[in-house]
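Troubleshooting log. The previous run stalled partway through. Resubmitting the same four chains, unchanged.
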Amino acid sequence: MTNIVTSATKYSITDLCKEFGVTTRTARHYEDIGLLSPSRRGQTRIYSAADRTRLRLILRGKRLGLSLEDSRQIIDMYEPGKTNIDQLNSLIDAIRQQRDKLNQQLDDIGNLLKDLNKAEANCIDALKTNGDK
Amino acid sequence: MTNIVTSATKYSITDLCKEFGVTTRTARHYEDIGLLSPSRRGQTRIYSAADRTRLRLILRGKRLGLSLEDSRQIIDMYEPGKTNIDQLNSLIDAIRQQRDKLNQQLDDIGNLLKDLNKAEANCIDALKTNGDK
DNA sequence: GGCGTATATTACGTTAACGTCAACGTAAGG
DNA sequence: CCTTACGTTGACGTTAACGTAATATACGCC
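Second attempt completed without errors. Output:
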C-alpha cells in the first residue's frame, strides 16, 4: 500500500500537458491569468487532481469556442462559498445565459450536421458519376 | 408585380449588417479574406441572397467557435462543381472530421449543461438558506 | 448648392492566446 | 565532473479578427 500522504495523485507540468495535448507554455499561461494555481515544491509546479480537473474544464470550454474568461466564469460557478449572496442572482442569470447560448449551439450543430450530410452525399454522388467514365 | 430583373432581393451593406448584428467593417473584412464577394454598382457593394446566406453560415460557424478558415472550408463544401474529382475524397475526409468534432461538441455541451444545472441548484440552495436569516 | 447620410479605401491599433527564444537552476545517471 | 533532461522566469513575437480613425466620393433633398 502506497503512502497516503505522498500518494495523492500529483502531476508534473509536462505529464499533465502531455495528457491533454497542450504545451507547458499553455499551462503557465493559464496560471498567469489565474486559471490554474498549482502548488509548488521549491520553484517547481505540482498539479493536483483538482488542477487537472480545472484544466479539463478549460479545454472543454475551448472546444466549445469559449474564451478563457468565459471558462473562468463557468468554472467559478462550481466553487461553492466563493459566491457571496449578492452575486448569486446575477450568477443564476449568467448560468441561464450560458444555457441559452448552448441551446443555440445545439441548434447550430444540428443544422450543420445536416448540411454536412448533404455535402457528403453530393461528393459520393460525384465520385460515382465520374468513376463510371 | 415587380420587375423580375431588378427585384431579385439585394441588400446594402448597412442593411445586411444590421440584420445580422455585425459592423460594416466585419463584412468588408470577410470580403478582404475572400469569404464574401458581393457584386458592385460602381464602387458600392450590393449583396445578393447568396451573399446573405454565406454570411449567415459564417456567423453560425462563429457561434460554434470555428475560425473563419474553418467556415470557408465548410461553406465551400456546399458549392458543387467547384470541387474537382481529385479532391472529393479528401473533402469527404474533411467532412467526417468536422462531424467528429461536432459530435464531440455535442457531448461537451451535454456535460456542460448538466454542470450548469448543478451550479444553478447550488445557487438557489444558497439563496434559500441565506434568505432565512 | 450646401447638408446630411451612406459608402469607399487606406492604414495603423488592439485583444486574446499563446509561440518562441534566451538565460539560468537542478536532479539523475554514467 | 559532465551531460542530459526537465524545470524556471522574463520578454518580445505572432496570428486572427476585427476596431478605429482619416480622408474622399456619391446620393438625396429642401
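Takeaways: Residues 1-6 of chain B have pLDDT under 50 and may be disordered. Chain B touches chain A at residues 60, 62-66, 74, 77-78, 80, 83, 85, 88-89, 91-92, 95-96, 98-99, 101-102, 104-106, 108-109, 111-113, 115-116, 118-120, 122-124, 126-127, 130 (CB under 8 Å).
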